[in-house]
Write a structure and sequence with these properties.
Largest sheet: none
Number of helices: 9
Number of strands: 0
Radius of gyration: 16 Å
Structural class: mainly alpha
Strand content: under 5%
Order of helices and strands: HHHHHHHHH
Oligomer: single chain
Length: 127
């Protein structure tokens, strides 16, 4: 377990504050908070806990602020980031799906195609 945590922290040192913040959570749902943390592979339950809310109140407050569900917002935000990274920064789809926390390339590719109407490999071939 220790070795796994050390490896994760070596890979991404920014996770230290995210993983080891044991302070009392405070009630915040903001675009800034979500944009700073959307790339982390945590569930809605964890986002709710980080903001000091129950899942129901987190979802309700999130909907008021973003006019979308947390799950749909996370998916769309991750896909936008992936699209940007492929198109503007010439990143390979086979690399970027991990960076935006999709569980598999197939899931990423299907979600990307559903949102944009073409596969991530298609846009990468034009870059």
């Amino acid at each position: 377990m220790r070795e796994a945590i050390e490896t994760v922290l070596l890979t991404n040192p920014r996770l230290e504050n995210f993983l080891f913040d044991f302070s009392e959570p405070y009630k915040i749902v903001s675009e800034r908070f979500m944009l700073a943390n959307y790339k982390f592979n945590v569930g809605i339950e964890h986002f709710a806990a980080l903001t000091g809310r129950s899942i129901a109140s987190f979802k309700r407050d999130f909907m008021k602020m973003f006019a979308d569900t947390p799950g749909r917002w996370l998916l769309n935000t991750r896909l936008k980031e992936a699209h940007y990274q492929i198109q503007k920064n010439n990143k390979r789809p086979s690399t970027i799906f991990v960076e935006v926390w999709f569980e598999s390339f197939a899931h990423f590719s299907n979600a990307f195609k559903a949102k944009y109407g073409y596969s991530p490999k298609t846009i990468a071939s034009y870059v």
